[in-house]
């Protein structure tokens, strides 16, 4: 699965701790993250993370573009629910695209924990079926 990880500054430590706690699961998947979040995770958890731009410089939009292409299977985004941020429109757009594409989205640690455990137990395998179907469609071999 392709998992996108994003955290605003107030929650970066929480996300790093979360990834370390579930490292045995995260290490089986391809991780993407906005710039600073990705650096913090790769340094602390020693995992490979594909880093995009920092959020305020377009990282949210980059992840949004991947979601629009159905290239992300889950987004964990520990956002700052208190402070107003200059790139709020990008954040709103990213969350909206998750709903457009029906991408599992966690914006707090309690939901993230449920999503990760659900994925580990196979409850998100329907995402793999979507990938198979999309690939078949590209190759002109879909039978659905
Ligand atoms: O601002 C962000 C998401 O909106 C996160 O960006 P960074 O991971 O670069 O701090």
TrEMBL record:
What does the record give as EC number?
4.2.3.3
| Annotated active site | 60
Indicate which residues the UniProt annotation says bind substrate.
8, 12, 34-37, 54-55, 87
Q: Which Gene3D superfamilies match?
A: Methylglyoxal synthase-like domain
Q: Which gene encodes it?
A: mgsA
- Outline the extent of the MGS-like domain: 1-144
By sequence similarity, the record places it as follows: Belongs to the methylglyoxal synthase family.
Q: What is its biological role?
A: Catalyzes the formation of methylglyoxal from dihydroxyacetone phosphate.
- Keyword Lyase annotated: yes
* Protein name in UniProt: Methylglyoxal synthase
């Amino acid at each position: 699965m392709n998992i996108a990880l994003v955290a605003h500054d107030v929650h970066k430590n929480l996300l790093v701790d979360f990834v370390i706690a579930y490292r045995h699961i995260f290490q089986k998947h391809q991780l993407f993250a906005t710039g600073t979040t990705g650096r913090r995770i790769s340094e602390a958890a020693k995992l490979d993370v594909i880093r995009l731009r920092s959020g305020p410089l377009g990282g949210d939009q980059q992840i949004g573009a991947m979601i629009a292409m159905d290239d992300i299977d889950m987004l964990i985004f520990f956002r700052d629910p208190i402070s107003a941020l200059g790139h709020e429109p990008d954040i709103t757009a990213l969350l909206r695209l998750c709903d457009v594409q029906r991408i599992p989205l966690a914006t707090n640690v309690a939901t993230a924990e449920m999503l990760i455990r659900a994925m580990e137990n196979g409850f998100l395998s329907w995402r793999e079926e979507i990938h198979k179907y999309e690939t078949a469609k590209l190759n002109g071999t879909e039978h659905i």
